[in-house]
């Protein structure tokens, strides 16, 4: 009979008992190595993240610098475009004024007429700035000063035989002459379509179309009446009539300032807005002074 401890159910053999401690040692060594590797990996990850953070900061700084440079270049470009656009607009405006002066020269007058219309219009607008038309700001007054000389720009298309005829026009000739309002307005409308955002040209277009309309609706080309007529056109209608009466022309003598005033006031409520005529009555001395400062050369 086998002794207790022999066989599979007996006490463990001496050799088996000695193996267990060595196994635990190996496990501990492997665990320590694994932990060391994990610690090293953590250090590597931390270093990598730190490196990426620095690189991210560098990239963000570079992007910010490039964005600032692009903004600076864009501002420079915008300034150049604005300067060039302003120059183009000034050239265009000068060309329009030259065209208007050409129409005046063809009609037997000189540029002083356009200068007087500009100054007369400004003074009358200043006189009504706080009156019955509501507050008129400086922008309105200055735009009127710039745009009023364009009122007869359409005359450049009227034949010389009609434009310079010394006597009265017949019915056919008058019909042709009256077209200068629509020709001028259409011309400025076309300019505005190609260069929007120019309010003084929009006012010039209104004036060109409507400066021969009458308060009583008997004017041309559309027979507008009363406040259907733009205010700027009503102002130019009055001062243009005053200048036509008082100016020397090749085909007529100048009429005295006092007689011109009488005629303008007599037409209040028929030809002219009565409120503008009343303002004219208050400042006609100023208009006479401006007329003398810009005399007609015939």
Question: Overview of this structure, please?
Answer:
- It is a single chain.
- By secondary structure, the chain is an all-alpha fold.
- It has two domains: 17-70; 83-293, Hypothetical protein af1432 (Orthogonal Bundle), CATH 1.10.3210.10.
- Helix 5 (171-194) runs antiparallel to helix 6.
- The chain has nine helices and no strands.
- The radius of gyration is 45 Å and the shape is rod-shaped.
- Helix content is 69%, strand content 0%.
- The longest helix has 93 residues, at 14-106.
Using brief descriptors, characterize the structure shown.
Hypothetical protein af1432; rod-shaped; mainly alpha; 298 residues; 2 domains
- Count all strands and give the number: 0
What letter string, H or E per element, gives the SSE order? HHHHHHHHH
CATH architecture of the largest domain: Orthogonal Bundle
* Largest sheet composition: none
Mean pLDDT: 82
Q: Return Rg in Å.
A: 45 Å
Query: How many distinct helices?
Result: 9
Overall geometry comes to rod-shaped
Strand content: under 5%
Helix content: 55-70%
The parts where pLDDT drops under 50 for at least 5 residues are 1-5, 11-17
């Amino acid at each position: 009979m086998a002794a207790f401890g022999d066989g599979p159910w007996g006490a463990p053999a001496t050799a088996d008992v000695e193996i267990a401690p060595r196994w635990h040692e190996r496990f501990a060594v492997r665990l320590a190595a694994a932990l060391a590797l994990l610690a090293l990996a953590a250090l590597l990850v931390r270093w990598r993240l730190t490196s990426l953070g620095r690189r991210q900061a560098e990239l963000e700084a570079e992007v910010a610098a490039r964005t600032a440079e692009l903004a600076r270049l864009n501002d420079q470009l915008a300034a150049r475009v604005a300067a060039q656009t302003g120059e183009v607009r000034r050239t265009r405006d000068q060309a329009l004024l030259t065209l208007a002066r050409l129409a005046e020269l063809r009609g037997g007058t000189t540029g002083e007429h356009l200068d007087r219309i500009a100054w007369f219009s400004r003074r009358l607008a200043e006189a009504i700035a706080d009156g019955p038309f509501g507050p008129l700001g400086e922008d309105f007054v200055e735009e009127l000063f710039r745009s009023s000389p364009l009122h007869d720009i359409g005359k450049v298309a009227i034949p010389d035989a009609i434009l310079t005829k010394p006597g009265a026009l017949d019915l056919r000739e008058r019909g042709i002459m009256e077209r200068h309002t629509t020709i001028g307005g259409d011309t400025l409308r076309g300019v505005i379509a190609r260069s929007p955002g120019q309010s003084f040209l929009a006012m010039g277009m209104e004036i060109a179309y409507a400066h021969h309309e009458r308060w009583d609706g008997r004017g041309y080309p559309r027979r507008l009446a009363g406040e259907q007529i733009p205010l700027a056109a009503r102002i130019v209608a009055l001062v243009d009539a005053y200048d036509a009466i008082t100016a020397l022309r090749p085909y007529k003598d100048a009429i005295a300032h006092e007689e011109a005033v009488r005629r303008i006031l007599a037409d209040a409520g028929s030809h002219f807005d009565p409120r503008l005529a009343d303002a004219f009555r208050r400042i006609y001395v100023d208009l006479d002074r401006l007329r003398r400062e810009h005399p007609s050369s015939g």
